[in-house]
Specification:
This protein has helices at about 1-30, 30-50, 65-70, 75-80, 85-105, 105-120, 120-135, 140-150, 155-165, 180-205, 210-215, 220-245, 255-260, 265-270, 270-280, 285-310. The chain is mainly α. It has two domains: about 15-75, no CATH class; about 75-310, MetI-like fold. α5 crosses α10, α6 (about 105-120) packs across α10 (about 180-205) and α7 packs across α10. The longest helix is centred in the last third of the chain and has 28 residues, at about 285-310.
Length: about 325
């Protein structure tokens, strides 16, 4: 009996102990938690609260009736989107453009970070790093204008060089063969420096004694990179790859919307641009929401799957 009462008393104390530990932790790191408040507030207001509007995808939404007053229609707009003669093409365009950006754009900041890590002259290193990440802060509107001028068939620098070597000018921005290449190159140029910052931070956490030990064993720079540097940042690479795969259906609305034109719709029209024209401009909000919800579900499945694969391979996932 005494043991029973002691056990009950101990169980009653446990919630109090948890609460006390929580209060102690909050008071100890109160300034860090205060700094978290703006970020948490942002996500609550702009990411979690709007999720309530996802029910529009299952309703015949009418502005005058409101979200709750609009009648339920089930999966009508999902079926309508999937049966659209354009949906297969825009889904393929979205996927292939994202894959191109993943294949060429994901390794680019890793390579840049590895190269910068080898530079011993700090002034030169910081200059290159600053120049490489400045394009991140330039609007796609400006970049779209820059690439339009650079690739102009009449006055563009690139076509002038082609003509100097006896070639014919290429209409890059209106060519179905070249437009996806322009998208990938401009995306890499804009983001490579900014994305490399994360890898440079990961590289700084590698123990220098590992390099010293490898030098004693006779390892060259390439062997040090392959057997020490890359494994040292592999967990960072895995996490960023998982997050990138979750956005595989986000091919870059702003970039494409600014740079594309009707002559390249066949290869450049993606889900987001089609939803903008068909759903937003056409005021078919239920259709636009249904497609957006479809993208979110696919992204969630990809994140969970890639996280599971990463853990099976021995890397740390995002949870």
């Amino acid at each position: 009996m005494l043991n029973h009462y002691a056990a009950v008393k101990q169980q009653r104390k446990q919630p109090n102990i948890v609460v006390k530990k929580f209060i102690v932790t909050i008071s100890k790191y109160k300034y860090l938690y205060l700094m978290l408040i703006p970020g948490i507030t942002f996500f609550i207001i702009f990411h979690y609260v709007p999720m309530y509007g996802a029910i529009i995808a299952f309703k015949e939404y009418n502005i005058m009736q409101g979200i709750l007053g609009s009648p339920w229609v089930g999966f009508k707009y999902f079926k309508q989107a999937f049966e659209s003669p354009f949906f297969g093409q825009i889904l393929w365009n979205t996927f292939i453009i994202s894959v191109y950006k993943l294949i060429w754009g994901f390794p680019a900041p890793i390579i840049l970070a590895l190269l910068l890590n080898e530079v011993k002259n700090m002034i030169f290193r910081r200059t290159i790093q600053t120049i490489s990440y400045l394009p991140h802060f330039i609007s796609w509107v400006v970049i779209g204008g820059m690439f339009t001028d650079l690739l102009s068939p009449q006055t563009g620098v690139v076509n002038n060089i082609i003509k100097m070597f006896g070639g014919q000018p290429i209409y890059f921005m209106a060519s179905k063969e070249w437009f996806r290449t322009v998208l990938v190159v401009s995306s890499i140029w804009k983001e490579v420096g900014w994305n490399s910052i994360i890898y440079l931070a990961a590289l700084s956490s590698i123990d220098p004694q590992l390099y010293e030990a490898s030098q004693i064993d006779g390892a060259n720079r390439w062997q040090q990179t392959w057997y020490i540097t890359l494994p040292g940042i592999m967990s960072t690479i895995a996490i960023l790859l998982i997050l990138r795969l979750g956005n595989i259906l986000n091919a870059g609305f702003e970039q494409i919307f600014i740079m594309y034109n009707p002559s390249v719709y066949e290869v450049a029209d993606i889900i987001d641009t089609w939803v903008y024209r068909t759903g937003i401009q056409g005021m078919r909000y239920s259709l636009a929401t249904a497609v957006g919800l479809f993208k979110s579900v696919v992204g969630f499945i990809l994140v969970v799957t890639s996280n599971w694969i990463a853990k099976r391979m021995g890397e740390s996932g995002i949870w």
